[in-house]
Design brief:
The complex is a heterodimer of chains A (60) and B (396). Chain A has 60 residues and is of the alpha+beta class. Chain A has helices spanning 14-18, 42-46; strands spanning 2-4, 24-27, 30-33, 52-54. Chain A has a two-stranded antiparallel ribbon with strand order 1-4. Chain A has a two-stranded antiparallel ribbon with strand order 2-3. The longest helix of chain A has 5 residues, at 14-18. Chain A is globular and about 30 Å long. The N and C termini of chain A lie close together (7 Å). In chain B, a hairpin with a 4-residue loop joins strand 10 (132-139) and strand 11. With 396 residues, chain B is an alpha/beta fold. Chain B has eleven helices and 19 strands. Chain B is globular, with a radius of gyration of 21 Å. In chain B, the strands form three sheets. In chain B, strands 1, 2, 8, 9, 10, 11, 17 and 18 form an eight-stranded mixed beta sheet that branches. Chain B has an eight-stranded mixed beta sheet with strand order 16-12-15-14-13-5-6-19. Chain B has a three-stranded antiparallel beta sheet with strand order 3-7-4. Chain B has helices spanning 14-25, 51-55, 99-112, 159-163, 234-245, 291-310, 316-328, 330-345, 350-358, 370-380, 383-390, and strands at residues 4-10, 30-33, 48-50, 65-69, 71-75, 81-85, 94-97, 116-118, 122-129, 132-139, 144-152, 175-184, 192-196, 206-213, 216-224, 250-260, 269-270, 273-275, 362-364. In chain B, helix 1 runs parallel beside helix 3 (99-112), helix 1 (14-25) runs parallel beside helix 6 (291-310) and helix 6 runs antiparallel to helix 7. The chains are: A alpha+beta (60), B alpha/beta (396). The complex binds flavin-adenine dinucleotide (FAD) and iron/sulfur cluster (2 copies). Residues 4, 9-15, 26, 31, 47, 49, 51-52 of chain A line the site of one iron/sulfur cluster.
């Protein structure tokens, strides 16, 4: 599962542009994570501040 | 508020604002929808722009000029610098602006020309009729707006065009991941932009110090998205640098952002749609500068919208004039040239970067462009010409 640490996110939209599934949407300061996530972690890698993380079963 | 316009512009950055202004000034009815509650904030920019470039679109008002720039320095991985001075090109070459005010002034110009502005209004999805984009479903101050022509100026995210079927996806290799502090109380040269390169400073990118006054500057870094990960993100590189260079600096603003440094979209027009600015991926790939290109493509899109609307032809054929106009313009040509340059420069090792930067401690440029700088470097390092040629770059 992909999670965004709300307080760490600077709502810059970088992750939105690189998600191959168009699964992210930024509305004002709120990053929406859609249901079509491949959990590939591409967005989590590129985020300039590490606000995104892919959690495994145990971490959820 | 009307629900039908000649032109709907999505996004209130420089691209959207100029498109809306120019279309409204020609008498079209124009609506600009911006999802944020205030224009231009948070900023996603280091705020540097050439003097002449800015003047083409707005008078340089002191209310949004933070600093005037007359020199630039490129600092090598080993710390040595090469100074680029502008004495040959009429001194003051650029500005560092205050984007929050600059962007808002551009939107004000659009409003003064007659465009309606909707803030806190997100474009959710396109309205599509017979394959033509005919407006957008919105959430916020309106639910739906119909228009003959839609101009997508929605910046790096570029979701709207993606929902219209245009592939705007950027690969992590071609996305610069950026972070920036506005640092106060630091010792800087207030008229000099500094670019630091090197793999330990900013892998496949650069770190900048752009003055915003006597002792205050935008200090930021952009690294290749592929090089970013836990413990080595843009923010980590920025913190390392600030700790070493400006330990006493006070952070008074922190922003992040992504810069697409890929080639432009292969298609920037469709039936009923034109795509401008960052959404069209027309950022200068080597410098990451995109303010001017956004305004320029915004203006062209407005011109083509005027013609298409007077001829009542909103097809790809008609709007496609926009695509060919910007591609054949000096801007379009320099994008391709600078893309190849970027692809070449990201392959250079720190040793090579050191050697190139050591080859001159000071260069007076006739005009402040990448191509002029590369020409000067070629003069001092003739072997470069062969390497550039094999990268597809021909210097004439
Ligand atoms: C860290 C960093 C440093 C930079 N430094 C420089 C620099 O020094 N000089 C330079 O020239 N360029 C620089 N750039 C690039 C520059 O900021 C952009 O090229 C420029 O802002 C592009 O303008 P635009 O109008 O295309 O998009 P933007 O300015 O990004 O505006 C897009 C607008 O659209 C809105 N929007 C998005 N989606 C929707 C939607 N669905 N509905 C409604 N509204 C929407 C957004 O909220 C935003 O306000 C930098 C970028 C970054 C990230
Ligand atoms: S890239 Fe990171 S900081 Fe930027 S919007 Fe996405 S999660 Fe937030
Ligand atoms: S993990 Fe992959 S699929 Fe899921 S939102 Fe991030 S980039 Fe998109």
């Amino acid at each position: 599962m992909l999670r965004v640490k709300r307080i760490s996110c600077f709502y810059c939209g970088t992750c939105v542009a690189i998600c191959p599934r168009a699964n992210l949407e930024l509305i004002d300061s709120y990053l929406f994570i859609g249901k079509d996530c491949a959990e590939c972690g591409i967005c989590a890698g590129v985020c300039p501040v590490g606000a995104l993380e892919v959690l495994n079963e145990e971490q959820i | 508020m009307k629900s039908r316009y000649d032109v709907l512009v999505i996004g209130g950055g420089p691209g959207g604002a100029v498109a809306a202004e120019k279309a409204a000034a020609e008498g079209l009815s124009v609506c600009l929808a911006e999802k944020r509650p205030a224009i231009g904030t948070p900023v996603r920019c280091a705020e540097g722009i050439g003097k002449e470039a800015l003047k083409k679109f707005i008078d340089p008002d002191p209310c949004f000029i933070s600093a005037e720039i007359s020199r630039a320095a490129i600092t090598a991985p080993d710390g040595e610098s090469m100074i680029l001075d502008s004495s040959k090109c009429g001194n003051k070459i650029g500005y560092v602006v205050e984007r929050k005010i600059f962007d808002r002034e551009l939107v004000r110009q659009a409003a003064d020309s007659g465009a309606d502005i909707l803030l806190k209004t997100n474009a959710k999805a396109p309205v599509i009729e017979n394959g033509f984009i005919k407006g957008a479903y919105l959430e916020g101050m309106a639910d739906k707006i119909s228009a003959d022509v839609v101009i997508a100026a929605d910046g790096v995210e570029s979701r709207f065009s993606r929902m219209c079927g245009i592939n705007t996806l950027v690969s992590p290799r071609e996305m610069m991941s950026g972070a920036q502090y506005l640092l106060a109380g630091i010792d800087i040269e207030p008229d000099m932009n500094i670019f630091n390169v090197g793999n330990s400073v900013a892998p496949k990118g650069y770190l900048w110090v752009f003055p915003k006054g006597e002792s205050i500057a935008n200090v930021g870094v952009g690294i290749q998205g592929l090089k970013s990960g836990e413990g080595h993100r843009a923010k980590d590189y920025l913190d390392n640098f600030v700790r070493k260079k400006f330990p006493g600096g006070k952070i008074i603003e922190f922003i992040t952002g992504g810069v697409p440094v890929c080639r432009p979209l292969p298609e920037t027009a469709a039936d009923g749609l034109m795509v401008v600015g960052d959404a069209a991926r027309v950022v200068e790939p080597l410098t990451g500068g995109g303010i001017y290109n956004a305004m320029y493509t915004g203006e062209l899109a407005a011109k083509v919208a005027v013609d298409s609307i007077s001829g009542e032809d909103y097809s790809r054929d008609s709007l496609g004039k926009y695509d060919s106009l910007w591609r054949s313009s000096p801007m379009g040509k320099s994008l391709e040239q600078n893309y190849l340059m970027k692809e070449y420069f990201v392959t250079l090792s720190d040793e090579k970067l050191n050697r190139l930067i050591h080859s001159a401690s000071k260069i007076a440029l006739k005009d402040f462009s990448v191509i002029q700088l590369v020409k000067e470097l070629v003069l001092r390092n003739p072997e470069l010409i062969i390497e550039l040629r094999s990268a597809g770059i021909f210097m004439n």
